[in-house]
């Protein structure tokens, strides 16, 4: 059923029919409508959609034209599509760790097409893709936006900036001394140049590596990499071009430097302490903490060929990161859902929600992290993350209340993006 619909809408476009051919007026009858801002559930609501955008939400059935289709979700809990602020959809399809090293960038884009569809089908209607070589992510975003392939809305970073030999470089070591990743730049002017290049090729945001990481060879997870001067240059240049900045940072010093430099989000944020949490609150820095990864890597990593070095690093990070998450939630730091999907299978993104609850959030807080908070981080808060007039009709449905058990979001039964039904 679901594939038929997807293929149909893709085919509609390929046949050159206009947007309106499938994005006409649609009426949704929602049995329970979850307001993610207030946590209230309204019964029996009508959502009127036209041309991909929500026109009205009301308890009274609105006026619609005669041939308007009604989608009956009267036994469902309906809410805005989920948003994942840390993904790597452009990637090979093999589970084997080493295969990635021998895969062409072109093959990885094909992986991206498959992974994007899986992500959308799981109810993730918006993602932020943080790091892809050769602007593969820009191409995928554009193809999705053009309706050529199914996938979530994407905010993309292009190549992640990083120091020579750092986490964003050593990820792609291939034993050639001349080789370096596309985003490598050392020094304040070099990082500015790299950002200008990324902007030229139409990225939506800037990602950089502030510290070492788990899945890179020879880097220390807690070790700061860029200097404060370089980080300040990155943020200044990115913000000048109206691009937000996401900093990969596990270690405390790297996190603090990145916050002081003015980044918009810290990715991973594993080693937090009271002082760093205070700093994040003071600067309004958003945390994007991928706390589901640990479980997957420790259970499946060895089978998938992840080297012992990286498994050992995961062990250093996991427990601490979850404690940090708990502390940050308690302190009221702003959080989004960032999963690092790609480390575990695409489409499993929502598995992180129950872990966010396990480590201190209420289900509503976890849902807000994956909707309105993420929308704010992207600066798309007027378009996505809520179901209100003028917002995109990015709508999902589940069988029971996600406010009681957030894990139901792992089994989304209905997905609409921009007024197009992808799964029902
Ligand atoms: N991309 C991150 C890195 O390589 C993943 C960290 C995964 N582990 C975790 N506990 N969050 O550093």
Give an overview in words.
This protein is an alpha/beta fold and 424 residues long. It folds into 2 domains: 26-80 and 387-423, Urease, subunit C, domain 1; 82-378, Alpha-Beta Barrel (TIM Barrel), CATH 3.20.20. It is built from 13 helices and 15 strands. The strands form 3 sheets. The protein has a 7-stranded mixed beta sheet. It has a 5-stranded parallel beta sheet with strand order 8-9-10-11-12, sandwiched between helices. Strands 5-6-7 form a 3-stranded parallel beta sheet, sandwiched between helices. Helix 6 (228-240) links the parallel strand 8 (205-209) and strand 9 (244-249). Helix 5 (188-200) packs parallel to helix 6. The longest helix is centred in the C-terminal third of the chain and has 24 residues, at 308-331. The radius of gyration is 21 Å and the shape is globular. Bound molecules: arginine. Residues 213-215, 268, 290, 293-294, 314, 317-318, 321, 340, 343 line the site of arginine (ARG).
């Amino acid at each position: 059923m679901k594939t038929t619909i997807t293929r149909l809408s893709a085919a509609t476009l390929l046949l050159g029919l206009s947007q309106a051919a499938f994005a006409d007026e649609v009426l949704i009858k929602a049995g329970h409508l979850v307001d993610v801002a207030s946590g209230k559930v309204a019964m029996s609501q009508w959502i009127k959609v036209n041309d991909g955008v929500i026109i009205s939400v009301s308890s009274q059935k609105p006026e619609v034209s005669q041939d308007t289709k009604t989608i009956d979700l009267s036994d469902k809990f309906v809410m805005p599509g989920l948003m994942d602020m840390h993904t790597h959809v452009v990637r090979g399809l093999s589970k084997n760790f080493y295969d990635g090293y021998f895969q062409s960038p072109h093959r990885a884009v094909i992986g991206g097409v498959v992974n994007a569809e899986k992500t959308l089908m799981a109810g993730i209607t918006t993602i932020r893709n943080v790091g892809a070589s050769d602007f593969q992510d820009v191409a995928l975003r554009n193809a999705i936006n053009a309706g050529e392939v199914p996938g979530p809305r994407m905010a993309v970073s292009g190549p992640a900036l990083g120091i020579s030999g750092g986490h964003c470089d050593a990820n792609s070591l291939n034993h050639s001394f001349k080789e370096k990743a596309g985003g490598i730049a050392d020094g304040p002017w070099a990082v500015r140049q790299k950002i200008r290049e990324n902007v030229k090729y139409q990225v939506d945001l800037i990602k950089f590596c502030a510290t070492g990481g788990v899945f890179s060879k020879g880097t220390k997870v807690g070790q700061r990499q860029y200097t404060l001067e370089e980080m300040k240059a990155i943020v200044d240049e990115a913000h000048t071009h109206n691009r937000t900045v996401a900093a990969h940072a596990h270690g405390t010093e790297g996190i603090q430097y990145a916050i002081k430099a003015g980044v918009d989000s810290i990715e991973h944020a594993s080693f937090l302490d009271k002082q760093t949490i205070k700093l994040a609150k003071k600067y309004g820095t958003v945390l994007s903490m991928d706390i589901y990864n640990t479980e997957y890597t420790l259970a499946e990593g060895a089978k998938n060929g992840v080297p012992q070095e990286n498994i050992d690093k995961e062990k250093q990070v996991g427990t601490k990161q979850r404690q940090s998450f708990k502390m940050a939630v308690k302190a009221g730091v702003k959080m989004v859902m960032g999963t690092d999907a790609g480390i575990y299978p695409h489409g499993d993104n929502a598995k992180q929600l129950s872990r966010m609850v396990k480590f201190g959030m209420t289900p509503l807080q976890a849902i807000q992290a994956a909707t309105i908070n993420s929308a704010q981080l992207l600066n798309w808060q007027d378009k996505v993350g809520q179901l209100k007039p003028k917002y995109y009709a990015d709508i999902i449905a589940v069988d029971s209340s996600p406010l009681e058990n957030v894990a139901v979001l792992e089994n989304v039964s209905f997905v609409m993006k921009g007024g197009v039904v992808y799964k029902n």
